[in-house]
Amino acid sequence: MNKFQAFFSETIIISNDPEEYLHLGLPVFTDVYPRQGPVSGIHSALYHASNETIFLLGCDMPFIEMQVVEYMLQKLGEYDSVVPCIDSQLQPTSAVYHRKCLPLFTSCLENQRLKLIRIFYEEIDALLIQEEELVQFGNPREIFFNVNDPGALNIAREMAGRLIPLESNENQNTW
């Protein structure tokens, strides 16, 4: 959370259970179209954000690198979105979006078109950034790792163990 607040002028949380996040001291908004999956979450983020361009990150992706975020933001240009593609899988919950996507997401929700991948391949002018382009920032599979189940949580703990600072003396931490 701190790395986003240092990088962005605004950090908001989208959740249908806002009480779980109030302790963080950030604005928390619910879906405008409740419980319609990721399409609704993206829509709500675009709807509630103050800025024309947003970086959206799912809460299950703890290892995002801010250099990747900055790179993706720089690539947006005239595109509607910039989306990483890891292991041939789009990562639309760790992507950059321009507000001009909002009417499309509204239409999708109102017409029950909720298949996010189909929206990306058929309706959004998205720049897909492939793994080969992302390796300059580290291991893309780790940067965009999803913690969705107990097995993934164990893997994430192992990965995090490599990132925890080691105490080299009382006054200095090293990575």
Protein model, in words:
The longest helix has 14 residues, at 150-163. The model is unreliable at 165-175 (pLDDT under 50). The chain is globular and about 45 Å long. It is 37% helix and 19% strand. The protein has helices at 2-7, 38-48, 66-75, 102-110, 116-122, 131-134, 140-143, 150-163, and strands spanning 13-14, 28-29, 53-57, 81-86, 89-90, 94-98, 126-130, 166-169, 172-174. The strands form 3 sheets. Strands 3, 4, 5, 6 and 7 form a 5-stranded mixed beta sheet that branches. The chain is of the alpha/beta class.
**What is the number of beta strands?**
9
Strand content: 15-25%
Q: Compute the gyration radius: what is it? A: 17 Å
Major sheet description: 5 strands, mixed
Tag the structure with descriptive keywords.
175 residues, five-stranded mixed β-sheet, two-stranded parallel sheet
Summed up:
This protein is of the alpha/beta class and 175 residues long. It has helices spanning 2-7, 38-48, 66-75, 102-110, 116-122, 131-134, 140-143, 150-163, and strands at 13-14, 28-29, 53-57, 81-86, 89-90, 94-98, 126-130, 166-169, 172-174. Strands 3, 4, 5, 6 and 7 form a five-stranded mixed sheet that branches. Strands 1-2 form a two-stranded parallel sheet.
